[in-house]
Amino acid sequence: MVQDGDVPSSGGSLRLAFPAGIGDERRDRLTSSASPFPKETGCPLGAKVSNGGGNIPADVQHGTFAPCTPLCRTLQYADMTTHEGTIETVARRIGIITLILAGIGLLVLHALPTPQLHATTGAHIPYQPVNFLSEFVRTDYAPLMIACFFLLALGAMATAVTLRRLRREAILVAIAGIALGLLGVFPTDLSDLTTDRFTCGSADRVEPCTVTGLIHNPLSTMVFLPLLLTALSVCARSFKEPHWRGIAYLAVGCGVVAVGGIVGATFYLQSLGWEGRWWTGLMQRSLVFPALLWMGGLLIVTKNLPLRGTGMTDL
User: Fold this and answer.
1) What is the SS3 assignment for the chain?
2) What's the pTM?
3) Domain map of the chain by residue range?
């Protein structure tokens, strides 16, 4: 005859079956722990542990703990993996949703009537495709563009959580997420599109440079460079770990699209007789949308990758 006791765990509860002779106080002491398998001691003696129908027999002699058996360790591992897998699943869902919303927001910005850029000098200038995406914050559509920055930042941070077992890649994506959040906090100055030179202080600028604008300018590099390094790292990883090859192929495909977009934008500006700066909003868009596609694909494909093992560890 046995008496049962429930032991809580992060995945639910485990049933402990105790011999009939064991006292209530002793049984309560064994089942009061937050985990039935203490990290340093292991499984309780005098108990049969059942989880999903599998039992672990134990010698009923004392109310102490014996070294954890292999099956105990398996149950510990399964319980921990379930908890960590839940974190990554939630992060993946948040990332997919926020990236989709950010993509929709960017498409809406381009579908709306052409806005006017509001310079600090009081001038109103029509927004053109050569203007940068961040310059939407200097129009009447500023709230939508700022929302897109924060959605992209949240999506990047969620992606970093999903990749947290790949420390190098997770850190790089997190840097990009932080930079995207800061882009939403520090609005840009209106760009001088007439030249590639640094023109702060020039009298013929559209508007004077500001501190927030000077902070904003390098942040876009802190978005694209970490994402590029992440893609290259995944491609390098795929040579040793075949299950990353799908992500690597997607990275290569998005890279080809980005390069093709930049080349096409260059020829388009040359056909217009463009004589201004080389890097414009058209080139920037050629990177933004492939990067969005790759991050979304990264979140979707990693759903089927193993949560543990050498393929998901970066020591």
Assistant:
1) CEEEEEEEECCEEEEEEEECCCCHHHHHHHHCCCCCCCCCCCCECCCEEEECCEEECCCCCCCCECCCCHHHHHHHHHHHHHHHHHHHHHHHHHHHHHHHHHHHHHHHHHHCCCCEEECCCCCEEECCCCCCHHHHHHCCCHHHHHHHHHHHHHHHHHHHHHCCCCHHHHHHHHHHHHHHHHHHHCCCCCCCCCCCCCCCCCCCCCCCCCHHHHHHHHHCHHHHHHHHHHHHHHHHHHHHCHHHHHHHHHHHHHHHHHHHHHHHHHHHHHHCCCCCCCCCHHHHHHHHHHHHHHHHHHHHHHHHCCCCCHHHCCC
2) 0.71
3) 2-68, 76-307
